[in-house]
Amino acid sequence: MSDTFQKVLHNQDGLHIEFIDDADGVRVEFKANLAFDLSSEDDVVVVVNGQGVPVDCQSSDFAVAQIPDTDGPVSLMIRVHEFFEGWELG
Questions:
Q1: Handedness of CA 10, 80, 13, 22 (dihedral sign)
Q2: CB–CB of 43/80 below 8 Å?
């Protein structure tokens, strides 16, 4: 049995952002309603410790970014359209 860590980073105005660390790796998942369109990589930006991370925009309501392995804390910044926020994790 592996440990799973999940943290909801944002859940307002039709945008849900969750940080997940489980057997599949570390990732950020985005879910949205009609208020946001997650289908364009230009509109969903993830930066980890100052480096851009590719975002897999699977549909207008779901996107995921795999977070590379890092030693120590993670500085995470996310922009989705006009929404922008940053977190220090771990």
A1: negative
A2: yes
